Structures
1.
Amino acid sequence: MSRLEKHLADGATGNADWQARKEAAFSRAQSNMAPVYIERARNAEMWDIEGRRYIDFASGIAVCSTGHANPGVTAAVQAQLQRFSHTAFGITPYTSAVELAEKLNELAPGSTPKKTMLVTTGAEAVENSVKIARAHTRRRGVIAFYGGFHGRTLLAMGLTGKVTPYKNMFGPFPGEIYHAPFPVGYHGISTQDSLDALDKLFKADIAPADVAAIIVEPVQGEGGFYPAPDEFLRALRQLCDAHGIVLIADEIQSGFARTGKFFACEYAGIEPDLMTVAKGVAGGFPLAAVVGKAAIMDAPLPGGLGGTYAGSPLGCAAALAVIDIIAGEKLLERANRIGVLFANRLSRMQAKFPAVIGDVRAKRGAMVAMELVKNGQADQPDPDLTRDLVNRAWQNGLILLSCGTRGNVIRFLPALTISDELAEEGIDIVEQCLATLLGPG
Ligand SMILES: Cc1ncc(COP(=O)(O)O)c(C=O)c1O
């Protein structure tokens, strides 16, 4: 019996039935953007249980960068599955995890010798990066940025600089977390403004000598797809060096070829002390890592880091395949070409709809965004139009994601293996949906 036949035998006939069952069975807090139940997905396309096709500009939130059901990833995971699925790396390890750690150490920017630790999710990687930084510095404070997103566990949430819907009603959060403004030129916050705010924070809230780590996304993801200016990342590097603070680059969304470099912090030419990696690293399998300078990574005591599923064999097999695919299919170059395609199309769209497309951000490979506003004004966000566009898009066969602290950014995260034709077809849908929503004139 096929999955679809089973769905039908269970009494459900389509997406609406399953959505009703889902709403009855799940906490309302675990909501879904589109009431669309996926039956099959290949590369940058998905099909739902009613046979409807979708172009995927979300890639499972920047995870399936090598495309859905990539044959190389699937074969590697199937081969691993035949051998064993789990032994617990902390009990009886396996060679694939060691090979993966060696590769991650090589790929991490900078010449300082690196070491790795593997976990399962991005939030876990973030939590562990803070633990490692605290063990290394024996200090307590952590500085993060407004608009940053670092995950949904309590420490990661505490670091996150976006309240709704993530933080409402969940406090108190762990202490000793401080937030500073992230530089966003489009909103009038310069690198100097952010550095001045850090200086004030050091005077008003916590001495730099008590700060264990500064955590920053080289391109803010959930916060609105704002690339950190190169000079800002370089200034943070200098600040951390001056005060013995651990600089953590959260590359969970921006890493693994998404931006046209292996890691987005390479644009600024900096070497972070620690880097968090997840999402695209394992092409759809749950795997995450902290990769960093060996001396810092070795600060916690033996046994101080780990977890039952940490570095799952299936995730390791997938990640080794993903690394080969990125090299073999030249996906760094491809990410940049996709970025150019989107940049051209979106700037033409902006010229057509100047009052609503306030900003197009397409200078970081295939991590592209447009910000929707009213009257062409950066300070007049249009979250309603953004939500309507996302909804209209899936109704017309395109999976789009929004983001931004004001809820007014459309982010584009296509698979790096998407064809130009499919990317163009998806952008056509965006344009048609926007034109329909805005109406004549
Ligand atoms: C930059 C960043 N950090 C951390 C996370 C959390 O990762 P996960 O959802 O795998 O816990 C995310 C997820 O969106 C992210 O984008």
Note: Residues 331-352 form the longest helix (22 residues).
2.
Amino acid sequence: MTTTAPRDEQLWSRCDGCASLLYRKRLRRNLDVCPECGAHARLDAPDRVAQLADPDSFTPLPDRPVRVDPIDFVDTLPYPNRLGAARTGTGMHEAVLCGTARIGGQPIALAVMDFRFLGGSLGCAVGELITATAERALADEVPLVLVTASGGARMQEGALSLMQMATVSQAIAGLREAGLLTVSVITDPTYGGVAASFATNTDVVLAESGARMGFAGPRVIRQVTGATLPEGFQTAEFLLRHGQVDMVVPRHALRGRLTALLAAAQAGRRAARRPALPRQASASRPATGAVAGPPTAGPERDAWATVRAARHPGRPTTLDYLETAFDGFVELHGDRLGADCPAIVGGVARLGGRPVMVIGHQKGHTTAELVAHNFGMASPAGHRKALRLMRLAARLGLPVVTLVDTPGADPGMSAERQGQAAAIAENILALTVLPTPVIAVITGEGGSGGALALAVADRVLMLENAVYSVISPEGCAAILWSDSSAAPQAARALRLTAADLCRLGVVDEMVPEPRPAAHDDPAGAAELLGRAVAANLAPLLDVPTATLVRRRRHRFRRYGAAQGMGVHQ
Ligand SMILES: [Zn+2]
């Protein structure tokens, strides 16, 4: 926002976005977001802290002595003169404001960068202050929240400023090891060394609406490549589309989103810390049938009729279940490698008050929705997003619930180029040893490797009208019958219904659906699903992690031919 004239400075501002003349007090009340066009004006660090932290909760960290001008740098002005001017101009000692605070009642350590101070550049003092904040988070066992605004490393401090990227990252690694949540909030602009370290190597990356982030700035890219950059390049929406950030959040919603994430992490930590009770019945039961006794199976249904029910366009999707069976879903996006696959959705949510990480395939009800979500066929980026969320859940002590509904993994050329097979393989591997409880529910189609990439779990549940198979009935018929119209016979031969798979031990429990099927009563189906997941999850929560993983591996060791598993007619 540009002030109109010195005399009116206190009263009026002109919006940089739409040029509206705005009453300053009104603009401040609106968190410096233009009420006309929604442009987010840059905030200085004290204003940002005031907006984010609970009132009167911020306590600055004590300043540490840091060497000023470590390499005696002089350009047209000696560096100490530039520092002095920045201090006078901003009233700040350095380009970051650090302390402890509360957000939504939850204690955190907080570092907020200030772009006014030498472009928010990362020098030794800034690196030291942010590292000290991370160390304070570790000592207090609280999450770390970083608000970034920076042009990059501070060249006046030479290679020593470059080293700050590693110094701060190392402190973040310490928080990861301790299972403490780290969140960065990217504000405009975040570039260079800050973008390439602690702005993006945190657990969750939020981009404020209007923020731009990148490694190289637009001017550098144009100079080096001669390319014309497209509209919206490096904006928050661009970053979301390309898998770089978990979400784009308008300023008004930042506190709310942070509060939800902090609450989930806090609950996960409490759960993870709870001492295991070795004498408790649940801890000594075998992995199979731990909850419901022997696998349950309903009356026989024709396999082909079940396939058709599983594919019914009205069947509840993962997002439907997240709306109904779970509460407070905060969706996390992106694989951090270049894409956000719409066929897999995931994020933190609550089930019966307990935070969990939910990851599932997303289809849709209309043709447009189905196309938008690639019919629930995940790309390698989708599998990598799922993997990132599984590992995040394990670090934070959150159980994982997966909802499987896919005809199969994306079989396209681009998926092959990006390593579809390896992406699936990596998820299977990661799930076998994931140190947190995992419940998988086959809710619709459990198609082949794409399904298993989310279904290596402690308990595998399956909805009554879901199917789970190594290949689609059509695919099987085309290969073995040389006739895809033999799909109904193939469906019967493949033993892909919940009843069959309970008998085979592939599935532990069948989740009943309202009559005649879930699409006739989605709310009823959601209630049954929520109840089944909660009942299966509860006994796993007290099992020590090592035992949990050992049992999971045992569960998937029992399918060999030597185990004498056979189809009972
Ligand atoms: Zn405006």
Note: Confidence is low (pLDDT under 50) at residues 276-297, 564-569.
3.
Amino acid sequence: MRQSGSFPKILATLACALVFTGVARADKIVLKNGQKIVASNVVDDGTMIRYETPAGQLALPKSIVDHVERGLSPVTGSPAAAAASLNLEPREPPTAVNASEIDKNAVHDAGVDRNYLARLESEARNGGAPANASAARAYYAASQFEVGKGDLERAVVDARTALTYGPEHAALLMNVAYLYLRQSKFSESLDYLEKAKHVSPRDADVYKLEGWAYTGMNRVDLAVAAWKRALALRPDAEVQAALEKALRDKAEEDSYKENESVHFRLKYSGAAAPELAREVLHELEQHYRDLESELNYSPPDPIGVVLYTQESFADITRAPGWVGALNDGRIRVPVQGLTGVDSELSRVLRHELTHSFIQQKTHGHVPTWIQEGVAQWMEGKRSDQNAAALLQVYDAGQAAPLGKLEGNWMGLQGDMARYAYAWALANVEYIVQTQGMGDIERILDRLAAGSSTEQALRDVLHDDYGDLMQATAEYLRKNYGK
Ligand SMILES: [Zn+2]
């Protein structure tokens, strides 16, 4: 998300403050002689590595730099989140006698008429084909309405009920497959896509969704095959772009080794040590157990993890320079030069794994500030170092409204990104420390059910954004002020 308005002014105040205090998570430039330089805003211009320190902007010849360790890590769209915005061909709902009357009666006055649906269902149980078609149509309409509201749980239940009354109907099969995909339930989604394929084998959208489901399951080969099939049936810019990205991944990962544990599928560059891969899996499993109990949730499918060298991470992910590790449905982490899991790598893994949990728990319906705030909290980060700078900005009336930090952060400049991370952590820290992790869990549940973020805060904390920010500032003052 691009920031506008008064943010450059905030930056001017903050740039220094957070560069001074944000050292714990700034970038590190590692020289070939082993020396490390802590810096921010590190930019590689081809021949020179330029960076900022409290002393101003400096530069080093690239030839003496071994690599740059990046300090921050955003979350980007998972396959499930990406599925939400896919263009799919409009599909004919099941035809029925009195179709328009059924649509009108199934959903009216901003709600689903459950009594009407129950009546059609009992008629269908006793009746023949026309009664079945009516029930299928009504539940399909209900399901579409629930998706529009953002309530995926209800939508999928209605979609499956519709399917029981029209089991061979392509639109109904696709609807269930699509909704499971949106919920990150990839294997369920594939079951229904398989059935859809039997009913309409030349439907490009079946293969399009199949590609996304396989991506979610880390089966890049199968995703590539599905998308190629989709393109052979119909040109599609979204599929083309996804295929190109998958082919980049595949080209890189063809030489990678694989390893897996109960909850993870790991791929790693042949250059990395097998012991490192085993240790990473062991560490991830421990974090998984902790997060399961903290967030009261278990992701349904294995989580993909890729360990990269520094160069291939930058090439493959094409992320901005300040990005350390990232999570786009798979946890992608550069591990250049590491032979074992140190405390920093452990924190990075826990941070990224938190993103996977939150993404799946909320079906991707979660603002970035909550994602990044909770991920930093879980990795053990606290606001002590940044409290003074955050308070200075808040007291100057220049705090970034949380509503502006809901979208994607990949477009943020390095210092603005630092500020956004620090402010997100402060707000989440305030909630956890004063109300407990249970409130975070309840907020996530409301988001999963389609609530707006501010509504979820109102329901759980009885606060709007303004109240929360003010309470957070008070919390910082009380706990970290002099
Ligand atoms: Zn993150």
Note: The longest strand covers residues 36-44.
